[in-house]
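Title: Comparing notes on inverse folding

I've been comparing how different people in this forum approach sequence design from structure. To keep things fair, I'm posting one structure and asking everyone to reply with a full sequence. Here's the target:
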């Protein structure tokens, strides 16, 4: 089999193990990837971030931090920062996490405050296992997760009048599980189609609250 294909399958397996928070399996897959593909530095770095996510989802923040530090140093490549783009009524906007640079940022954050309280009433729970670092004292689970770039890009669509029928987002990294769950609810709540192209695939969120990936991502 083609080596690149095997590498991509390994990343998919690792991502599945991550979603199940299976530490032993994730370590095994990551170590196998390192042995088989020592030259795929950027891909290995993404793998090490998935593995460090497993550690932090189990509360092992020190181990997560050490792994990221060592792998970054050993592989000699930089972690890409997460960016999301969206185009709304002819305006192309880019967001990074916790971005406040857009002139309408305060409206976006206000919209999230409003939405969060509505969605929580519909049984939505912010999933803290997707927080990959220790939080500062002034942060809450909600404030960290609401700052993800894809949520901000979606929020930018939601403050438009009228809200676009098709919301389109592009993200340079993989979408996180919490954003995925959140987007499903937004699609249902607003009866919109939301397309998110991430580093891995295209997610089509339908007005019925389902995603085309059927939650395998
Ligand atoms: C992790 O995955 C392995 C292999 O599929 C399985 O045998 C094991 O029970 C899993 N562990 C946990 C904690 O889910």
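Reply #1:
Here's my take.
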């Amino acid at each position: 089999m083609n080596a690149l294909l095997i590498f991509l399958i390994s990343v998919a397996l690792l991502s599945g193990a991550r979603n199940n928070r299976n530490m032993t399996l994730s370590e095994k897959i990551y170590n196998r990837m390192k042995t088989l593909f020592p030259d795929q530095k950027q891909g290995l770095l993404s793998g090490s971030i998935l593995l460090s996510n497993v550690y932090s989802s189990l509360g092992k923040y020190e181990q997560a931090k050490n792994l990221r530090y060592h792998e970054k140093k050993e592989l000699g490549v930089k972690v890409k920062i997460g960016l999301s783009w969206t185009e709304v009524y002819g305006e192309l906007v880019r967001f990074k996490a916790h971005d406040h640079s857009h002139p309408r940022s305060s409206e976006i954050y206000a919209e999230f405050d409003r939405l969060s309280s509505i969605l929580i009433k519909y049984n939505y729970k912010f999933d803290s296992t997707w927080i990959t670092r220790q939080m500062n004292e002034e942060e809450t689970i909600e404030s960290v997760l609401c700052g993800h770039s894809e949520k901000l890009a979606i929020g930018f669509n939601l403050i438009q009048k009228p809200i676009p029928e098709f919301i389109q987002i592009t993200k340079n990294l993989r979408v996180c599980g919490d954003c995925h769950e959140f987007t499903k609810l937004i699609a249902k709540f607003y009866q919109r189609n939301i397309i998110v192209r991430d580093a891995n695939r295209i997610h089509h969120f339908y007005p019925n609250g389902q995603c085309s990936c059927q939650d395998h991502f």
